[in-house]
Structure formats: structure tokens, C-alpha cells
Amino acid sequence: MSAPAAAAPVPAEVPTPASRAPAEVAVPGWAPDADERGALDIAPGVLRTIVEHATDLVPGTLHRERRLAGVEVGDAGPRARISATGDAVDVRLELTCAYPAPVRETVAAVRATVTEELERIAGYRVRSFAVTVSGLREATGPAQPRIR
Questions:
Q1: Sign of the CA dihedral running 108, 118, 140, 97
Q2: Highest mean pLDDT among 15-24, 64-73, 139-148
Q3: What is the spatial distance between Cα 134 and Cα 69, in angstroms, rounded to a whole number?
């Protein structure tokens, strides 16, 4: 018979980031308050990318074929146009939906997802949202997001 294994030493508790006290930051006395130090502006192109990516995540949205002189040259996903004023955006979105599928439900899901993602990622609220369904296609396979 072999000798019983020695009990392993119990490791000391390692502090996790949540259990640590926040680090003190030395801010000079002349520095303005955090709210007054500056602002973050997000370019409309970034907001457009967020909208198009969020649209790609919704089941029932598809990319459409791009053709040149009758020859397929790839595909194109949803197209968005963004107007931003302050912390509010106006969104105009053109997309292709899967057929047969309830278009109203797909568009409602797109509106909800895009609104949530713009708020979560960029802190912008949607003031107006216009959706144009430019086509219906049969889904041929799992939809791949355009942006990975």
C-alpha cells in the first residue's frame, strides 16, 4: 500500500478586481471636474457601422446579391444613413428580409436591436427610425454578419 498523500497547502485568497479598493488618482487642484474635462464625439460612420452590424444580427435579415451586367459580383448587406444631433440620431435603413417570413416581426426586431445597441455601445438614443425593405429572398443558409 502506498502512503497517503500529504494535504496540499491552502492558497491564500487572491483579491479579485471587484474586491479591490479603487485606486486613488492624483488630480491636480487646478484640474476641472470630470464632467467638465471634455466630450466624446462619435463619427456618423461609426454609428452607421453599429446600425448595420446590429441589423445583421437579427434573424430574418439577409444580404442581397450584387450583380454587374447580369454577373454576380458578391453580396451587400443592410445600408444605413445616419444623422446625429447631440445625443440623438435619425436612422434610415434599407435591408433585405427572408422569404417567407413575417416582415413586420423582422422589422420590429431590427428596430429593437438597433435601438438597444446604439444606446449600449455609443450612448445615443434613436429619435426617428425609417426602414425600407428593398427585397425578399429565400434564405439559402445561415446568415453571416458582414462585420466580424
A1: positive
A2: 64-73
A3: 20
* φ, ψ of residue 90 in degrees (nearest 5): -110, 130
Q: Mutual orientation of helices 44-57 and 103-117 as an angle, nearest 10°?
A: 140
C-alpha grid cell, residue 129: 427610425
Determine contact, residues 77/56, Cβ cutoff 8 Å.
yes
Please determine, for residue 6, whether its predicted confidence score (pLDDT) is greater than 90.
no
The DSSP symbol for 122 reads I
pTM of the model: 0.67
Amino acid at 68: L
Residue 3 has pLDDT above 70, yes or no: no
* 3-class DSSP state of 133: strand
The angle formed by the CA atoms of residues 136, 140 and 145, to the nearest 5 degrees, is: 80
Q: Smallest Cα–Cα separation from 117: which of 60, 33, 27, 49? A: 49
**Cell 429565400 sits at which residue?**
138
Determine the Cα–Cα distance for residues 47 and 123; give it in Å rounded to an integer: 10
What does the DSSP 8-state code read for residue 140? -
Q: Could you give the residue ranges of the DSSP H alpha helices within 5-139? A: 44-57, 103-117
pLDDT tens track for 95-127: 999 988 899 999 999 999 999 999 999 999 999
